[in-house]
Amino acid sequence: MPVGKVEALALKIYVDPPQIINETMITNTIFNISVKVDNIPADPGAVGIQFFLTWNSSVLNAVSMEEVVFHQTVPEDKLDNLNRLAHKVTVANASYAYTYYDILLAISDGYAPLSGNFTVAIIKMKVVGAGKCAIHFTDSIIGDPNANDIPHDAVDGFFNNLAPPPPPKAALLYVDPANVINASLTPGNNFTININIINASGLGGLEFKLGFNVSVLNANSVAKGGFIPGSVTPTTQIDNTGGFVKFNVSLSTPLDGDGTVAVVEFQVEAGNVRNSTLHLYDVTLVDGSGQPLLVNTIDGSFTNSRTIAGDLNQDDTVDIKDAIVAGNSYGSSLGDPRWNPDADLYPDGKINILDVIVLASHFGQSI
User: Are 65 and 89 in contact (CB under 8 A)?
Assistant: First the structure.
């Protein structure tokens, strides 16, 4: 029958299992596939079956083939009426064709025609390489007593022993600078922070909210950063009652890489509270088809309290306890599990000897 027929027919010849996807099936692994036929109609029934299967011989080789259906249905004392026209395997294919020498005798003796579901043959396969391939019917015939090919589907199998690709790396959305620490930012003064992205891949759209303490800060503006093309206009919202800004952008051409997504300007407000977390939440990244992308986030913070550089545990003294805090994140960089933005005293996105030098220059100082 023609390969690739669109309509689904009840009668089919197929490879079982339909898919073998297993990276542990390495070279010299032996396994079996079956060629089966389902739903042979009682009228007219089948008196002959033929198929030709091929595959990629650099991935799979055939070792042997066992005929099943005719040897199971023909009585032992009638096996001399079994006509084996083709029964051959090579490294690249298998050919099979069985019928009866005397069809009328087979019908009169009650073992023909065939109807129902049967295993036609079992083929022993050997893995010879890594790859994936179809186990493909290039020809199949299910013949009735009048020498007609009964319409049927021929359903290929599939083999794949390649290791699955690694999961996509998550993008990182973060506040930059991570910590705004400036005692001169008194009420009425303004400052800006960036919302940056690292490892964007196929980015088709992005949305986030950035929360803040309205007793400490109000947002003046939110604008797109240099990562967003000039022709694209984002949707933004500022809520100085609820304490958040919202940013949403859709991209007609997906983007890859790193850069600044948005720039937010804040004004410092009067009040006794002088610290605010800059919290990223309700963050969604999607690809060009609207499917979600993996993303991690890192918050920021603001304080205009009087502090000492290196006072990582905020006890108003730079001492060995702060050195231990820095040591716990030494060697990490932005996005690492051990990353501590407070320890990035030389603000370059990594904790190294420069940060330790800053801490050491204030060692022993207290407020």
Answer: yes
